[in-house]
Amino acid sequence: MSAEIEFFFDFSSPYGYLAAESIEEIGNANQREVVWKPYLMGALFKKFNLTPLVNSPLKGSYAKRDIKRTADYLGIPFTIPEPFPVNSVSACRAYYSIVDDNPQIARKFALRIMRNYFQLNINLSDSENILKAASEEGLDVRVLSAKIENDTTKERLRFEVDKAIERGVFGSPIFIVENEMFWGTDRLDQLTKWIVSGSW
Amino acid sequence: MSAEIEFFFDFSSPYGYLAAESIEEIGNANQREVVWKPYLMGALFKKFNLTPLVNSPLKGSYAKRDIKRTADYLGIPFTIPEPFPVNSVSACRAYYSIVDDNPQIARKFALRIMRNYFQLNINLSDSENILKAASEEGLDVRVLSAKIENDTTKERLRFEVDKAIERGVFGSPIFIVENEMFWGTDRLDQLTKWIVSGSW
Q1: Which residue in B76, B166, B190, B191 has the most chain A C-beta atoms within 10 A of its own C-beta, making it the best mutation to test that interface?
Q2: Which residues in chain A have Cβ-Cβ distances shorter than 8 Å to B200?
Q3: pTM of the predicted model, to two decimals?
Q4: Which among B185, B26, B7 is positioned nearest to A189, based on CA atoms?
Q5: What gap in Å lies between CA B110 and CA B59, rounded to an integer?
Q6: Which site from A23, A35, B8, B40 is most exposed, i.e. has the minimal number of CB atoms within 10 Å?
Q7: How far apart are alpha carbons A29 and B120 in whole angstroms?
Q8: Cα–Cα distance between B175 and B58 in angstroms, integer?
Q9: Of B158, B92, B88, which is closest to residue B125 (Cα–Cα)?
Q10: Which domains, ranges and CATH numbers included, belong to chain A?
Q11: In terms of C-beta density within 10 A (0-12 exposed, 13-18 middle, 19 or more buried), how is residue B75 classed?
């Protein structure tokens, strides 16, 4: 198998969710493993004193419309949830508690909580909703619940966030393959060309 | 003919240029007039205290790479010029000096000066280069030269810039058709769907 596709996203990012619905198909079709790397855009915004897109005075209202239009264009069920955006710390901790032992299930879990949030308005920041989704993926909720609160898990998430920012990740979704970076669901076509042809 | 497509861009914007190479074809294929409305993103940045994308600390270097990669993906010859970005006031004034009498030639002139800048590194901010391009479109350079310096033209440009900002235009390219706004060359597919189907 050739080099993996790294997929950086925030669980609370609509464009990240839309990418999550497409990226595995692209990986499978091209024999590339996709490594899901959720991180916290909040940490990035804080560090660089940035404003989330949807709160930006000029682009915010456009962005909300564009997200829904893009979802419809891609044929993906989508409603902007309320509240939005939300804190995705619990979701991230849960993911990193699962992924080392069960990478497949971790990805299914990740997609499930995003679908819950962006299709069914089930709040992603609520730990109970996170645990319920984990249980629906057949995971042991008592074990996971303890792991989420574990210092090792907290440290792991901080490490993953710092590493993402250090590597220049600044948005959601961002893909990196063979050191080439692609930002946005609207770059999946260029990403596909890259992995098929080996260059842009 | 159905409602026109308004095409807002800054002459110095690479993504605006890439859109300029595609939008007429989309308009022609769908019997829609495209009304080119160059404006000054500098005025927008000043008004809202914003930073141009390519100077943004996180996104800047990505953006430069993405622009070239996107141009190659679209099959459009492109080199990031030097200097870049430049002031496009003269280019805008020239355009608005031409467009009322000669809309067709004004569009050809606009595309020519962008091709000169983004393909041949001919500085877009230099009035001599602007006049030379106008002459190559068969325009009377003495008449145009006087018009560019005319107070009426300066006032017209200020009016167009203010109107664009007032209507919520915040980037380049931005398209508006039947009150629906599309931002970016990567939304030309959604724009096309809109004008074909009448909705998103």
Answers
A1: B190
A2: 69, 72-73
A3: 0.94
A4: B185
A5: 28
A6: A35
A7: 39
A8: 26
A9: B88
A10: 5-197 (3.40.30.10)
A11: exposed
